[in-house]
Amino acid sequence: MPTTGCVMMRPEAILAAMEKAFGPLDPLTGHLLYEQEKRDRREHCGPSLAERLEELFAAIERLAHDSHDGRAGHRRARVRKLVVSKAEAARALGIDAKTTLARLIDDKHIRTVKAPHGERVPWSEVQRLAQQGIPPASTPPRRTRPKAPPRADEVGDAIRGIKIT
User: Fold this and answer.
1) Do residues 45 and 2 touch, judged by C-beta distance below 8 A?
2) CA 61 to chain centre
3) pLDDT per residue over 33-66, tens digit each?
4) What is the Cα–Cα distance from 165 to 162, expressed in whole angstroms?
């Protein structure tokens, strides 16, 4: 795996760069983005030497443990993102991103964080809503038919009705 060209930014550096680009941010946003950066770096650039050694020692311990149990093999752990896009959050919850998710965000049922490519939803919020269920709509949809423009004679009557004193 290529490891050249992969640079890891510290949480403070990520937060400073984001604040420079987007204005003041919550410190949790920087930490979440740092953790996501760490996972992305690992996925795209491969693990660091320390991570490789740690994995090697863990594998040796598992093999030693498995040989005593009579078990063999391993399970691969699934890594989840800490923050997801609105579309990913809606897909995970089984709701429509444009209407239902937008309403939940507007009604403050879901917390979002600013990110370089738009707002993101913390995975913990998705899990919380999946466990608690989607809250009912607090306000009816704001779909109304557009009003027709006033007729010309109504405009003329309104103008003639103006009294100048």
Assistant:
1) yes
2) 36
3) 778 877 777 777 776 666 777 777 778 877 776 6
4) 10
